[in-house]
Amino acid sequence: MKNTLMKIISQPQSHAKWINTLAYLEHIGSRKIMKSLNSRLLNLDMLEHLTEETRHAYFLKKIVEKNFPGYCPNFSPEHLLGNNSPDVYFQSLDKYVNQHLPEGKSHLILNYYYVTLLIEKRALQVYESYQNLLQENGFSFKLTPLILEEQKHLKETENAIAILDSSFAQNLDLFLAFEHELYLQFISDIDHELSLLSAPEATYG
After folding, report:
1. Hey, which bits of the chain come out as E strands?
2. Which of 21, 66, 87, 202 is most buried, by CB atoms within 10 Å?
């Protein structure tokens, strides 16, 4: 991941598209909460999570507009790294988890929690690696507030699943393995696009 990130931040076009892609993934997360859960199932924690996911998308989008004005006006595929890869990653993960959870009154809730857990784990890994490179390369913006909230989400989600699912350990192993394959394909798609982009090799801050 570090090599990919170094390529990304070395040119403003790819860097803008990367942050825009992160913003879009956060937006997908908030949209998924709204679509996958019956509104009557939403509790205070879920509403808080929904609000924070939307705010994260806004936070990242503001970074794009401030540091790379004009590069990514919206979330059209041409303004994302990997084009439709973010949608494929998120939708495939959600579908797989949904298919491998037993039916029952907790099915929707567990699907929401597991997908959230998988996304938060990956997001933290990516955000922390990215944050370190931003600091090492002299960029002025930071992801610290976002990282702290993602850590909180992860802990809350793990606690909730442990209470609801007696098969937490084995289910998590199964889902993590599938998510890892999706993530590798996502990064592969980004690397392919980076190889096609032509831009100066200097690092921009």
Report:
1. none
2. 21
Distance CA 87, CA 107 (A): 23
pTM of the model: 0.88
120-172, pLDDT tens digit by residue?
999 999 999 999 999 999 999 999 989 998 898 889 889 989 998 989 999 99
Helix-strand-coil split of the chain, %, nearest 5? 75, 0, 25
Q: Are 181 and 118 in contact (CB under 8 A)?
A: no
Helix axes 107-136 and 2-9, enclosed angle (nearest 10): 60
Compute the distance between CA of residue 166 and CA of residue 171 in angstroms, rounded to an integer.
9
CA distance 2 to 201: 16
> What CA–CA distance (Å, rounded) separates 155 from 104?
24
Instruction: Say if residues 130 and 5 touch (Cβ distance below 8 Å).
Output: yes
CA distances from 104 to 91, 154, 171 (A): 22, 24, 16
Q: Where are the domains of the chain?
A: 2-196
Q: How far apart are CA 18 and CA 145, in angstroms?
A: 19
Q: Is 83 left (phi over 0), alpha (psi -120 to 50) or beta?
A: left
Q: Angle CA(66)–CA(71)–CA(73) in degrees, nearest 5? A: 85
